[in-house]
Design goal:
alpha/beta, TIM Barrel, binds S-adenosylmethionine, binds iron/sulfur cluster
């Protein structure tokens, strides 16, 4: 097998793989899923743990060292802790993280910790019960908060909090979330609303930008100072509070695209490889895995997907075409 590193035609080396383990979810965030009538994939369409692990073993030989497990909601996938244990044991994996809405985390935090998970990103946009219900169409704020406390008590770290920022809706949440995180040693990451929703409700006027949030936090919490030596390949732009109260990250995909440093690939739960969240084309890993393909053939497919990678998404161009899959079916 050719084990040279996965470098695309723009010189970007890829070492990071996001694995979606399901398209199902137990809540219905309006910027991701429709409220009802979602057509989920059949069980047989979803990659088994063995198939995911085989793919990762091949990808590791091409230089993948970092994994993030996501979904849909990964905690609704049965026996997730088994997958976490197996992935963390693959030689060459240096970093394993999970992104979750935390509704099931109070029960799952311990088995996942015992399976070797330490890094976790928890998605929470508001501490207000009414707004949580409005955003997620479920009354589960209490369960999410219990999940966060369970993680902190078990010693997970770093724990980060992903908050999607939507103009005209989540402005009142910025400061309370910042204080909640400062009090607990959690790093909040404010994510700009992206055109990945199933109902096509995104438009530019609903993007609450990183710059606007930075101004609010600097004025009402503590001045934010840019961190110049941060990892340029990380999606979040990081700042620190001038008063030493921790860090804040911004995933400003719309107003500050970070495509030039992208090092990420994505495997969907139904076994399609994508070089970008916004990609239109996909490589069919599942068919290879299920047709007795060799590791060499799988490696060649990964390499050709990386070679086909574009320079970046075109959200800010009139040429932009939203991907055919919404966020929950890609894996955020
Ligand atoms: N269910 C898990 C969760 O919510 O964290 C994992 C999957 S979810 C698709 C991954 C992340 O995508 C979430 O943390 C959420 O912040 C983000 N997300 C979903 N839809 C989005 C959108 N339209 N724009 C920006 N971020 C979005
Ligand atoms: Fe579910 Fe995550 Fe999508 Fe919200 S963002 S609907 S929690 S998959």
């Amino acid at each position: 097998m050719d084990t040279t590193r996965l470098v695309d035609s723009f010189g970007r080396a890829h070492d990071n793989l996001r694995i979606s383990v399901t398209d199902r979810c137990n809540i219905r965030c309006f910027y991701c899923m429709p409220e009802s009538g979602v057509q989920f994939m059949e069980r047989g369409e979803i990659l088994s743990f063995e198939e995911i692990e085989r793919f990762v073993r091949v990808a590791v030989q091409l230089g993948i060292t970092k994994l993030r497990v996501t979904g849909g909601e990964p905690l609704v996938r049965r026996d997730l802790a088994v997958l976490i244990r197996n992935l963390s044991a693959i030689p060459g994996i240096q970093d394993l993280a999970l992104t979750t809405n935390a509704v099931l985390l109070a029960e799952m935090a311990k088995p996942l910790y015992q399976a070797g998970l330490r890094r976790i990103n928890i998605h929470l946009d508001t501490l207000d019960r009414e707004r949580f219900l409005k955003i997620t169409r479920r009354d589960d704020l209490g369960r999410v908060l219990a999940g966060i406390e369970a993680c902190l008590q078990l010693g997970y770290g770093p724990v980060k909090l992903n908050a999607v920022a939507v103009k005209g809706l989540t402005e009142p949440d910025i400061v309370p979330l910042a204080h909640f995180c400062r009090d607990r040693g959690i790093e909040p990451r404010f994510i700009e609303f992206m055109p990945l929703d199933a109902q096509k409700i995104w438009d530019r006027t609903r993007v609450l930008s990183a710059d606007e949030i930075i101004q609010v936090l600097s004025r009402e919490v503590s001045p934010l100072v840019d961190i110049p030596d941060r990892d340029p390949r990380a999606p979040a732009t990081e700042y620190r509070y001038a008063d030493g109260g921790g860090r804040v990250g911004f995933i400003a995909s719309v107003t500050r695209p970070f495509c030039l440093n992208c090092n990420r690939l994505r495997l969907t739960s139904d076994g399609k490889l994508r070089y970008c969240l916004f990609a239109i084309e996909e490589a069919d890993v599942k068919s290879l895995l299920r047709s007795g393909a060799s590791d060499d053939e799988i490696a060649r497919l990964i390499r050709s997907n990386v070679q086909a990678k574009w320079i970046g998404h075109e959200i800010n161009s009139t040429r932009f075409v939203p991907p055919p899959r919404p966020m929950y079916a890609i894996g955020g």
